[in-house]
Design brief:
C8orf32 fold; Immunoglobulin-like; 2 domains; eight-stranded mixed sheet; four-stranded antiparallel sheet; about 375 residues; single chain; globular
């Protein structure tokens, strides 16, 4: 059963999905990188951080763009930073088409890579599909590594096979400029998902992308994982065009503490092919009934390990990703859900009654700390 809501601007995308379902052709057999590698993210999240420093040059700017809000309050002992994420329906009306002029520019750079990227972009009809195609292309051609390569030129980066988050974003913007997607690079802090305190030293900074989706709206994207949003653990500092090593030196060896967090962003794969990217989409669909959930401790820090689902004589095991899990349900009934912690301990989380809902969302809490 397919349940979804839509709008006229996304009719082409919906038709493509319906045709695939009607003919029962698995998406991955068609090589459709747009639909087979993305799942949808829906919900809200928020977090409050505190950096205990009385330095005058410590700064956390306030920013408010589509889906992301950051505000800061400075005190005599440090600065509180509040992040609010809204991963609701994101309507993309801006159409995009591959054309001969773009292909000619790509071929001048690297004929082999141009052929690969053209195969992906030729399936894109909207700006988000073109952007995710480039994300996928980058993921296939450059390996993400933590290293200091900020001084490299873009030509030097393109000739390598690995890159830092900053260099991946520079590659992304390089190709965005060629295909006509307006974007900019931002720099900030990505607070670890399983920590309560974080010392800002080598590798603490993170880079991601800001994309203009229409004349009035911009959204954050991470080329490694997200389109249209980032999580509540991303703290914005400045745009890359304002980047200056001396400007960020005051953050070195300072400690950021997580004061509070609430995560209610749920991840729906929308097909049985494991997604590579998660996006805010205009509609949410599921070929079968799907359960999407989270396992968190009392401080809303994600649990580590795997989830085991028992029901109708079959056991299903799925690894947690940042505390999240999902599984498909083909039969109505009661399912028992367990967590298998990293140390091998198994604990029952509860029973789930599934009765025909297309998408069921659930949150489980565990007392154990994630580090145990």
């Amino acid at each position: 059963m397919l349940l979804c809501t839509t709008n006229p601007s996304n009719l082409t995308r919906l038709k493509n999905i319906l045709i695939l379902l009607l003919f029962l052709i698995p998406l991955h057999f068609l090589g459709d990188q747009i639909y087979s590698t993305t799942g949808s993210a829906r919900g809200e999240a928020e977090a409050v951080f505190f950096l205990s420093s009385d330095k005058n040059d410590i700064f956390f700017p306030s920013i408010n763009i589509n889906g992301f809000s950051q505000s800061a309050q400075k005190t005599k002992n440090g600065t509180f930073v509040e992040i609010k994420i809204t991963a609701d329906s994101l309507r993309i009306d801006k159409e995009w088409r591959m054309n001969k002029a773009i292909l000619k520019k790509l071929k001048k750079l690297d004929p082999k890579r141009a052929e690969s990227l053209n195969a992906l972009l030729s399936r894109a009809y909207y700006i988000d599909e073109a952007a995710i195609s480039i994300f996928y292309f980058i993921r296939n051609n450059w390996k993400y590594v933590e290293k200091n390569d900020a001084d490299l030129t873009i030509d030097e980066i393109l000739n390598l096979k690995e890159a830092s988050c900053l260099s991946l974003c520079r590659i992304c913007k390089f190709y965005f400029d060629i295909v006509g997607i307006q974007s900019s690079i931002v720099i900030g802090i990505k607070f670890p998902t399983d920590e309560e305190t974080f010392v800002l030293k080598g590798g603490a900074l993170h880079s991601w992308i800001k994309i203009k989706i229409d004349k009035d709206n911009e959204v954050f994207c991470d080329p490694l994982s997200f389109f249209g949003f980032v999580t509540q653990r991303y703290i914005y500092l400045l745009d890359y065009e304002d980047f200056n090593k001396d400007k960020l030196q005051s953050f070195h060896l300072e400690t950021v503490k997580l004061i509070s967090s609430r995560d209610r962003i749920f991840y729906n794969p929308e097909s049985e092919i494991k997604p590579l990217f998660w996006k805010r989409s205009a509609y949410e669909s599921s070929v079968y009934g799907v359960v999407v959930g989270k396992v968190l401790n009392e401080k809303e820090i994600p649990a580590k390990g795997s989830v085991i689902v028992k029901g109708f004589g079959k056991d299903l095991k799925t690894d947690l990703f940042e505390g999240n899990f999902y599984f498909f349900v083909r039969e109505e009934g009661t399912y028992s859900i367990f967590i298998n912690f990293e140390d091998g301990k198994v604990e029952k989380l509860g029973d789930l009654v599934f009765s025909g809902s297309a998408v069921k969302k659930i949150v489980f809490y565990v007392k154990e700390k994630t580090s145990q």
